[in-house]
Amino acid sequence: MAEAFVYPRNPRGQRPAHFRTPGQSHRRRGPGLPALLVVAFWTITLGLLLEASRPARAAEPSPADAQVIPPGPLTFEDCVRLAIRQSPYFTRSALEIEVKQINETDSRYAMFPPHVTFQSYYYLDRPPQPGLPHPYYLNFSMEPYNPFGAYFTLQVQKAATQMTIFLHLQVISQGLERLGKMFLSLAALKQLTAFQSDLLNLCRENLTFAENRRAIGTATSLEVRLATQELEVAKSELARLEGDRKRTLNSIKTFIIGLKLEQTIDLDLRDARRQVLNNFDPAAATLEQAKARSFELKALAMKLELQKYNVTLAKAKVLPDILFNTQTPNPLSITTGSGIYVALGLQVPIWDGLDRIRNISRQKTILKQYGSEKDEKEIDLTDKWNDLQEVISVNSAGVNLAKSQEELARLKERQAEIRYDSGNEQLPAWLEARKAVLEAHKSAASKALEYDQSIVSLRQLSGDLCYSYVDEKSWQR
Question: Is residue 116 a part of any domain in this protein?
Answer without folding.
Answer: yes
